[in-house]
TrEMBL record:
It comes from Streptomyces bambusae. GO terms for molecular function: isomerase activity. Belongs to the TrpF family. Residues 14-203 form the N-(5'phosphoribosyl) anthranilate isomerase (PRAI) domain. The gene is trpF. Pathway: Amino-acid biosynthesis; L-tryptophan biosynthesis; L-tryptophan from chorismate: step 3/5. This is N-(5'-phosphoribosyl)anthranilate isomerase. Keywords: Amino-acid biosynthesis, Aromatic amino acid biosynthesis, Isomerase, Tryptophan biosynthesis. Its EC number is 5.3.1.24.
């Protein structure tokens, strides 16, 4: 488990996802992100190769968790990307079952399970962190986290899906999420991160 995950629970955990350039990394780190994500799922405007992620991850301070983001990829592929890039966390967005998490557990990486399903508690699949996301991850579309019938899972979970500097504070208040994850909401155009929006997002998440 990463250092960032053992810090004071009162401080919201912030993950900035889909970084592709040095400027993105600098902006996320300067904003005080607890985790940064590199997308290895194919077909996204944010997809990077393992060598790019390795170069960028080397710029990230030790206390910030580096995460590889996958969708529907085999254990072997996840393992290969994780080893080649050196990320310390793995986030799975597909239909992966508990056996996937068990297979990856031995490598000592922080495991994030992303799902659009209703889940009762974090850890059911052996993950360290649960991520409740929209059905179409990375689309910037919100889901009904604010609805009256939403029940927050037990344990540490991150809220994702359509978050931005204008709605993140309200979303945290409404759901009680332990942390947040964002990609589209901190971009000036699809796939292009905005340092100003990253800063504004982190400030708003912390209620400043
Ligand atoms: O960002 C992507 O393109 C992506 C592709 C495949 C799987 C996950 C992806 N991103 C994850 O989506 C949410 C944030 O989405 P949003 O754009 O802020 O609505 C987050 O979990 C990212 O890690």
């Amino acid at each position: 488990m990463s250092d960032a995950m053992t810090e004071d629970d009162a401080d919201v955990f912030i993950k900035i996802c889909g970084l592709r350039t040095e400027r993105d990394v600098e902006a996320a780190v300067a904003a005080g992100a607890d985790a940064v994500g590199f997308v290895f799922a194919p077909g996204s405007p944010r997809t990077v190769d393992a060598a790019t992620a390795r170069r960028l991850a080397a710029l990230v301070p030790a206390g910030v968790l580096t995460v590889g983001v996958f969708r529907g990829q085999s254990v072997e592929e996840v393992r290969r990307f994780a080893e080649e890039s050196g990320v310390r966390g793995v986030q799975l967005h597909g239909e992966e079952g508990p056996e996937h998490y068990a297979a990856l557990r031995a490598e000592g990486r922080t495991l994030l399970r992303a799902t659009a399903e209703r889940v009762r508690r974090c850890g059911e699949y052996g993950e360290d962190l649960l991520l409740l996301d929209a059905p179409d991850p990375g689309s910037g579309k919100p889901w009904n986290w604010g609805s009256a019938d939403f029940t927050a899972p037990e344990g540490r979970w991150l809220l994702a899906g359509g978050l931005n500097p204008s709605n993140v504070h309200e979303a945290l208040k409404a759901t009680g999420a332990w942390g947040v994850d964002v990609s589209s909401g901190v971009e000036s155009e699809r796939g292009v991160k905005s340092p100003a929006l990253i800063h504004a997002f982190a400030q708003a998440a912390r209620g400043r």
